[in-house]
Design goal:
Pfam families: Aminotran_1_2 (PF00155). By secondary structure, this protein is of the alpha/beta class. The chain is built from 10 helices and 9 strands. The structure holds pyridoxal-5'-phosphate (PLP).
Length: about 280
């Protein structure tokens, strides 16, 4: 923040900037997403008020109040809040240690008429499962088969040095990819991003305008500078180390009750439970 003042850029950030975010910020965010394995055109990337805002916009594009929305059987609490606000009918799809079960997803699309799946393939909340690459292919095929859309929440991918390839890369034309700086930096910044299929571009810009005009340019500038200076990468390394140390402690103390957390040593949010355990 003091750097912004010293550099005399504050005034330029105090006005109304484009709804989707300043071009310079979006270019820098694009580089960060590319390190996470998500490659796209900058035109498809939108800066949001955090990941929750991105999820809310994406769901608004592909489902209507009263419709079923598919999720993993246990899902992120913000999704429950969003559904009670917007009247989506959440339908949980069973999974195993490799993530969602493709046959169960196929059945759920058929039975509910849902047009959208909200999923967190990498370090799912709250189970901490990481979907295998074979499973990602199968899930992408099921989504394609039903002409449905994926809202892929990838806020924890940064915890891996080489994150698994997002499903959104397999079916970019059917995927909304959600990322956030809440977990890798700080939630109070309220900065996240959404990558949407190209035909949705104008609607996404209008949705940002309708629900908050634009994410705070000052905070986007702070995030951009932290990416550019390498400070974000240093934070991320520290967080990976802290997660591994904490999970080792949890393994030692709670090992009888939890699946080995060493199965997902990077997880900071999961509670890896054993469905058959005590
Ligand atoms: C799985 C998951 N997705 C999305 C979010 C939302 O992140 P943000 O704080 O950027 O809105 C959270 C925050 O708790 C989360 O745990």
């Amino acid at each position: 923040m003091s750097e912004l003042l010293d550099d005399g850029v504050l005034e330029s950030l105090l006005g109304y900037l484009p709804h989707q975010g300043a071009a310079a910020h979006r270019e820098i965010f694009l580089g960060w997403l590319s390190d996470l394995g998500l490659k796209t055109d900058v035109q498809n990337l939108f800066i949001t008020h955090g990941g929750q805002h991105a999820i809310s916009i994406a769901l608004n594009m592909v489902s209507a109040p009263g419709e079923a929305v598919l999720t993993e059987q246990f899902t992120y609490s913000g999704m429950v809040a969003l559904s009670s606000q917007n009247g989506y009918r959440l339908h949980g799809v069973p999974g195993d240690a490799h993530g969602l079960l493709p046959e169960a997803l196929d059945r759920a699309f058929g039975e509910t008429g849902a047009r959208a799946l909200f999923a967190t393939p990498t370090l799912q909340t709250p189970t901490a499962t990481v979907m295998s690459s074979e499973r990602r292919e199968l899930i992408a095929n099921v989504i394609k088969k039903h002409g449905a859309f994926l809202i892929e929440d990838d806020v924890y991918a940064f915890l891996f040095e080489s994150p698994p390839i997002p499903i959104s890369m397999l079916i970019p034309e059917r995927s909304f990819y959600v990322s956030s700086f809440a977990k890798c930096l700080a939630p109070g910044l309220r900065i996240g991003s959404l990558v949407a299929p190209e035909p949705f571009r104008d609607r996404v810009i209008n949705a940002i305008r309708a629900t908050g005009w634009m994410a705070s340019p000052i905070m986007s500038e702070v995030v951009s500078r932290l990416i550019h200076s390498g400070d974000l990468s240093r934070q991320v390394h520290a967080k990976r180390g802290a997660a591994a140390r904490r999970n080792a402690i949890a393994d030692r103390v709670l090992g009888n009750w939890l699946s080995p957390l060493s199965a997902a040593p990077a997880s900071i949010a999961g509670c890896l439970f054993r469905p058959d355990g005590p």
